[in-house]
Structures are given as C-alpha cells and as structure tokens.
Amino acid sequence: MADIHITDIENAINWWRQRSPSPDGVELGAPLRALAEVYARMSYFRQTAHDETTLPPPAREAWLAWYDSTPDAPCIAICSTAQGDAVCKGCGRSFEEVRHWPAMSPGEKRVIWRRIIAEGSAWRFNRYADRAPERRRPASDSAA
Q: How far is CA 120 from CA 1, 59, 113, 117, 144, in A?
C-alpha cells in the first residue's frame, strides 16, 4: 500500500467544504471533521504522508469520496509504451505503471499522479494539454 500525501488530504477537505459547507460557520460535517482530525495530527507531528491502510475508517471513506471525483488515469490515448518506450510520452507513466494500473490501490495511483504532475513533462501537460481536461468521474453518493 501507499501513503496518502497531505496535499491529497487538503484537496479532500476543500472538496468536502464546497460539497457540504457548515450551516453555521462553526460545526463541521462528519466527513470533513474526520479529514480535519487526520490533517491536524499530520501537521502537529510534521508528517507529509499517512499510511493508506491505517487511515481511520471515517477519514478513509471521506477521502475515497473525494478520490472518486478525480480522474482515474492520466492517459490521453497516446501510449508510447506500446512502441517500446520505458516511459509513456503521453501520460508520463512507466510501462509497469500502465500495466499494473487497474490493480493499484487509490493511494498507489495518487503517488504516481503526484510524480507525473511534479515532473510536468508528459504531453498531457504541454503538447496535447487539450486532450487532458481533468474530466470528473461521477462520484457515487453511496461512497460518501
């Protein structure tokens, strides 16, 4: 399993703040509170990541609801690994990452997403950026 980076916790918190704003500006909904507790603990202990498998169940459920609202794969339908490249020019994933993507956990996928975004060299970020609008997967209300 992989670690969930603090920026993903922040993104999930902001997603939940937009989705379920506090009615009185003080109280937090349960998903937001669960994520905020994890975030506070990480900040206090100066941690940048939390083990995906030990995330408290309410926080994991809230994080997965956010995760389901993000694009699943960075693919832009230009796969150069099929032509023998070690790293796909289109999405920035290695051949092994492309091959194992369906079996990866959400945390493992986010680690790869963070890396390719930080590198920013794949065609999805420049040459073919128009092919990669960050389309949202429909979020299941039951995942919340």
A: 25, 30, 10, 5, 31
pTM strictly above 0.85:
no
- What pLDDT shows up at residue 136? 39
Give the mean pLDDT of 109-120.
94
Q: Which residues are CB-neighbours of 57 under 8 A, at least 6 positions away? A: none
What amino acid is encoded at 40 in this protein?
A
Could you tell me which residues are beta bridge partners of residue 3?
51
H or E element at residue 11: helix 6-19
Q: What is the residue-averaged pLDDT of the chain?
A: 88
If we measure between CA atoms, which residue out of 110, 136, 113 comes closest to residue 124? 113
Q: Name the helix (H) or strand (E) containing 5.
A: strand 3-5
Summarised one tens digit per residue, pLDDT across range 70-89 is 998 999 988 898 888 899 99
Q: CB within 8 A of 72, min separation 6: which ones?
A: 109, 137
User: Who's near 100: CB < 8 A, 6+ residues apart?
Assistant: none
